[in-house]
Records
---
Amino acid sequence: MLLHKNRKRKIVKRVSVTAQENQLLNQRVQASQNPSFQNFALQMLLTGQVVHRDFSELKQLRFEVAKLGANVNQLARAAHVYRQVDDEVVDEMMTMFQEFKKELDDLQQQLLQKD
């Protein structure tokens, strides 16, 4: 089996199953809401349980933050063009947004690493 050099997991384990067992496994993978059999099987083999985390709210929050970032950039651009806002205020606004975005990124990393 051809594996990419950049792969983290280079050892392949194979399991043979009957058609009925395959159907049951597929049902369990779907019920677990895991993205793939690989993730499902690895979690089951290592921990004996599969934990599903719902990141839909985090995805929605990131989408909203991206829209907010676009608005902040538009405000900064307009402030520079019309020169009615001090550069310090614009820089402070951009810095605050970047700090907020970094905190969100850190939170996301903590959620992804939690096991």
Note: The chain has four helices and no strands.
---
Amino acid sequence: MTQRPPSHTHRPVPEASQPGSTPSPRPRPNNARWTGAKASTFIKMLARSGKVTSCALAVGMSRQSAYRLRARSPNFAHYWDIAMGEAKRRRASSRKGKPRVHPLLSRVPLSEMDLADIPAPGE
């Protein structure tokens, strides 16, 4: 009688989950404390992108801690509003000069569109 291999096979543990290995590519935010330098960098990045999560993670903080700081610091909230306004202006100016969205791809329901707006094939 021959022996069969066990029904389960040994699968190696991925390197990232082994003790002493390098951490995952996306480091966990350090929620220790907001510093003046972190807050300043966050506001500058927010003015460029308008993305709270990515800006908070870039300075080593979480999105939730950024919103908590905004709630308890009126100065930070004021600069946050200014930064979001700047980001909104940047997005609007980057859209200027871009071609209009085709009517069939528009978010406006077809019933509200004029069929004359739809270009003929080849136009």
Note: The chain is about 45% helix and 0% strand.
---
Amino acid sequence: MNTIRIKACNEFVIGHYRNNKDILKRKDITDGQLISAVGQKKFFCIEDWYGNRIHAKFTISKIEKNEYGNYIYTISSNKDVPERYFPSPYEIIDCAPNIAAPISYSIIHA
């Protein structure tokens, strides 16, 4: 099992993301809508450069707020998957009702 950490960059969406009108700023989202993403999981079939396929379950295992007010998402996988193949939190949450998902983020390297 491996994990990555990402920092949400102040742009979120609730439900389907169709165009720029669906983008919400952090101030328009409640903490409950953000934190309710913890525990969301989804299976993905990942194909690497060589055509090898991995069936893995990705889970948003933790969301924490840092000293600057940014939300840090920890996404874990039940298989050993390279960092570049991890899905975004938006793909994991998959348009769940009333759950905010970041659509802009950066990966935090330890």
Note: Residues 31-35 form the longest helix (5 residues).
---
Amino acid sequence: MQISKTLTILGVTAGLAAIVPAAQSAHAKTMANPVPQALQGTWYGKYSDGTTGKSAVKYRLTKYTFKQGAAKATNQNYQAITFYDNVDKYANTKDSNYLFKVANKVNKHGYWKLTLINVNSPLYFKKVQHNGKTALKMYSYLSSNSKKAQINYYYQKSE
């Protein structure tokens, strides 16, 4: 009888040992990847979609947010939009249309992929040197069937 109790305890312990790491890895998969520190900050530049001309824009990237908006006040009713990286926290809120996810590593060309979930639109960011200044290079595609990338550079203001 003592042997069967020992075997039962060992079996339960082994089963729990197998279940707990699996539960932890499933939880880890739902955690948000933070925006890489190299990309964080406030970046200014001109954005053009190829049809409407260039507009002054500002991007602010923090550990778990991505805010885009006009760099200057204009007569257009242009509102800044904040996207959130924590999908679990914001999934069932009024901000659920403003979610993004960050890839867990750079792609083979050194770009970080940030995907705007609601429109399934990936944006690719990389910190580079451009015209002698540190810049945030962003490329994206205007449509899912477009083969030509839209490339823009954004700079931090000098103090």
Note: The first helix runs from residue 2 to 30.
